[in-house]
Please model this.
Amino acid sequence: MTATNPAPRFLSYQDAIGRLAWTDAVEALRQGHALPRAEIRDVFLGPPTGTMMSRSAFIPGLGYGAKTFTVMDGNAARGLPTVQGAMLVFDGATGTLKAIVDSPLVTEIKTAADSVLGASLLARPDSRHLLVVGAGTVAASLVKAYTAVLPGIERVSVWSRRPEQAQALVAALDGIPAELAAVPDLQAAVGQADIVTAATMARQPLILGDWVRPGTHVDLIGAFKADMREADDALMARAALFVDSRATTLGHIGELMMPIASGAITAESVLGDLYDLVRPGARRRQSPDEITVYKNGGGAHLDLMTADYIARVMAR
Model:
């Protein structure tokens, strides 16, 4: 008699989001990076303002995953989601399709958990003031994730090119265990923050090295293509540089490609990625005055770790 596999369940954003915890999502990424390094492949198609990405990964001991999604810059003006797609999760031993997970759900949880894991390993333990640069969907999840996982944060400032967007985000956030404020002056806010996290669609630097005070941790998320960046050469040259994944950042993302091309840094300036950082004795922050920069580039292996966590929660 031939065994049959149960039909995979589609895990929607609405069904799952209320059952997930930021601390558990960050821990899933930490544990995933204790496994052997993933095999990953990416495909990018389409123009800069409308891209389809297909990202696949295999992690020994975890399984297989493939996420295909579109990123359309103009969709917000159309009243449509900027990111749309789905993540497939396959069993590592049998190849069985275990779950189909809503791509925006995976992306939201993965992106913020990725950055917060980096900050938990690199930011000063006494960090109290978080600055969020940008006021979109990712910014909202960053506020929630950072304040859930780093309880020392007492103040969260939000800056956006459109001040009314920052004000609306602050007004919409409930239950955040920190003081929230929309701020009008980016330079002043950067100079006062302990942690700066940026999630924008910038193609020119927004955060300048001259603005950043000693001891700051800078978390760069927005740039995901070769023509995008959020920090200038001065900051990249001044800081201790780390990435979530060398494989998905070096040679792929403008945040690193542009300062490498200009000679401000080299590929060897990147001191480690998450596979290095989670291990005991890793090179992390060296002093309270060191500036650290962490480039969140994402990757299919991070998607797989996150989608596996979501599927496990929803199977309970």
